[in-house]
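Handout, page 2. Input:
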Amino acid sequence: MPKISSMSKSPLRGGLILGGLLLVAGLGGCQISTTAASTPNTPANAVAAGGNIVATELATENYAEVLNNHVNDRALVDYANLQQNRQGLDTYNASLVSVTPEQLASWSDAEQIAYWVNAYNSLTLASIIDQAPLKASIKDIKGVWKSRKHAVSGDTKTLDEIEHETLRKNFQEPRIHAALVCAAMSCPPLRQEPYTAEQLDAQLDDQVNQWLANPETGLRIDRENNKVYLSKIFKWFGEDWVPGYGTDNGFTGGEKQRAVLNFVSNYVSPEDKAYLEAGDYGVSYLNYDWALNQQS
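Output:
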């Protein structure tokens, strides 16, 4: 299957995203000061519980600790505990501004994708725990995707802008849909580690495998009734699979659906792949559960 292009290589490659030590000239001593919870007009990553944040490094190690400590093996998040112990998450989110636009542009595609996917997921976590009490669903947070701004590399962006205007627009990599987690039960699973340039292909493939392995949220093949059930994400963003997986041979449905099924067929058993290619079935989409992906 097509893999991520890594045409441009920065001398800073690898250690920035993996190790999280990006020293930015001119930013030493620059502080983001706040004492209030973030609102749609206040970047969430400018908020530190109890004080200032010094954003002079891409603090990936802090984010790694957050994921390791607050996400379980079922990809559920202990939001209540994270809300009380949020300093590591706030430090990482504040550090997103330490990557200048020029540096980001010089990175490989894999480095940039890792940066933006990590940013999307970490800022989503912040958006959830900024609510007191916690909401039952991310959909209950007004403006969470379209108006709530977050400070990132040289700019402020909403979650929608990160997903649709940056990741989907600038990179032909549909596997990002298996990595972006919108804090809902029917989302793909949240990893217990950050994404890194060096491991991105393997991480994204693993994400797709985990996602599709869940018959309630990813993929279910019902041979008895000649039905294939897919996540609604494939319905919402089907066009993203057409450039790399579009086909006129086999499968069923229109252009976007056939491309999706072609993609999915790479992650199933040989028997299921042959069944999908034969196209003798109908396609339906699984109900999407927007309840918060929280630990009980």
